[in-house]
Amino acid sequence: MAKYTAAIDEDTRQRILALPRAVHFSAFMRKAIAVFVEELEKDPDLEPGDFIITCTARENASDKKRN
After folding, report:
1. pLDDT tens for each residue of 10-58
2. Contact partners, residue 36, CB within 8 Å, separation at least 6
3. What value, to the nearest 5°, has the Cα angle with vertex 29 and ends 28 and 34?
4. Which uninterrupted H or E stretch holds 25?
């Protein structure tokens, strides 16, 4: 699998590092990237400003990973 990188500013990097250890940042990013890719597949002319990121309750609790 190819790895893609994007530059982030130092302030954002420090904020990510300051998140509590219980927050699995990579899981959030995987979900966000999947949503972005789906939307870009539908409309490749979208720009970064066309996206609004919000937090919503999960519609289906069965999506949650079980340990």
Report:
1. 999 999 999 999 999 889 889 888 999 999 999 999 998 999 988 888 7
2. 51
3. 105
4. helix 25-42
Secondary structure class of 50 (helix, strand, coil): helix
Q: Which residues contact 64 (CB under 8 A, 6 or more apart)?
A: 58
pTM > 0.90: yes or no: no
Plot region of 56 (φ>0 → left; ψ -120 to 50 → alpha; else → beta)? beta
Please report where in the chains the tokens 């789906």 appear, as a residue.
38
* Cα–Cα dist 51/46, whole Å: 8
